[in-house]
Input
Amino acid sequence: MSYSPIIQESIAYIETHLPEELSLESMAKFAGFSKYHYHRIFQQEVGVSVSEYIRFRRIANSSNMLLFTDERIIDIAIYYHFESQESFTRSFKKYYQLPPGQYRKIMGKLTMQREEMKMKNEQLLKGWQLSGSHPFNYQMGIDRETFHQGRASGFLKSVTVVPTEGEFATMMQQFKADKYMGKRLKLSGFIKTKAVSGFCGFWMR
Output
């Protein structure tokens, strides 16, 4: 039995309920499994436990709030259900190597500098290429506001009003396969779609 659809539904649910009370018990109930079984399949599919995933998604969202709002750190901590500002700071430093206040100060300045320099999002992501049947009808770049881990994600979008039927574009990255011959590989990632009328995919070959 494939558990991927169930885990995808779980991730979508978590994403829209991050400011609410979330736990292994509530997520197992949502998926219709025992806590033990749900913990096992979530860890197997995502690579981290349910609680760890919820924690780093809350931290990623809180990093956004630090940069793009004036909310106090204690209020952000409470909003995302951390027991205290101290526990929030510990978790934040685990992922970003800086306490929240320092992150806001340093990264806020860098963000302002980027805006002043008018960095173009359409610049190619390092190591990635835009390809497909009609790459000239699409744009790819860096999204610094929506991401799951780290500080940014990549985006791919159409720049035409009415795309031609059957056309597509891909964000592609190549690597040498000689080191992986005869080995089993697992590809994992996160995709968010908006106003998609055709299809999107995520694959390795």
User: Anything to note?
Assistant: Residues 50-68 form the longest helix (19 residues).
